[in-house]
Amino acid sequence: MKKLRVTVDGKAYEVLVEILDQDSASPVAKSHAAFTPVGSASIVSATVTPPQSSPSAPQGVAAAAGEVPSPLAGKVVSIDVQVGQKVEANAQLLTLEAMKMNTYVFAHAAGTVAAILVKVGDGVEEGQGLMRLS
């Protein structure tokens, strides 16, 4: 078995490749120092494992309990409610724009708008809290 790193479209993958000897169906003995050229190798099995994410990779933003989360990353283009306003379940709260398309955000339950956590023009991440309902 030979462990290799393969890059496809800019993504690195570690693969485990079993190389067979040309004269037999058994795997090449570990005592062989030379690597069989690609043209004469047969791949019996390959396991692709994505690279481990680094601990410094950006983590997603999560809304806290009682907050209305953003369904996608985008820009706030309108806020359709005010703090203190009572809203019914499925009432439109605000509008986001992403890739020149508007996405409407609705209340998940009836309640009162306790706080608006964003303003028009703000960029938001998927999962970020947009407003708090009580």
How is this structure best described in words?
- This protein is an all-beta fold and 134 residues long.
- The protein folds into two domains: 2-49, no CATH class; 67-133, OB fold (Dihydrolipoamide Acetyltransferase, E2P), CATH 2.40.50.100.
- Helix content is 0%, strand content 45%.
- It has no helices and eleven strands.
- A four-stranded antiparallel β-sheet has the order 4-11-9-6, with no helix packed on it. A four-stranded antiparallel β-sheet has the order 8-7-5-10, with no helix packed on it. It has a three-stranded antiparallel β-sheet with strand order 1-2-3, with no helix packed on it.
- The protein starts with a strand and ends with a strand.
- Residues 27-47 and 54-58 have low confidence and may be disordered.
Radius of gyration: 27 Å
- Spans with pLDDT under 50 lasting ≥5 residues? 27-47, 54-58
Supply the CATH superfamily name of the largest domain. Answer: RNA polymerase II/Efflux pump adaptor protein, barrel-sandwich hybrid domain
SSE order, as H and E? EEEEEEEEEEE
Distance between the termini: 59 Å
The CATH architecture term of the largest domain is Beta Barrel
Helix content: under 10%
- Nearest-integer average pLDDT: 77
User: Spatial order of the strands in the main sheet?
Assistant: 4-11-9-6
| SS element count, helices | 0
Which term fits the overall shape?
elongated
Largest sheet: 4 strands, antiparallel
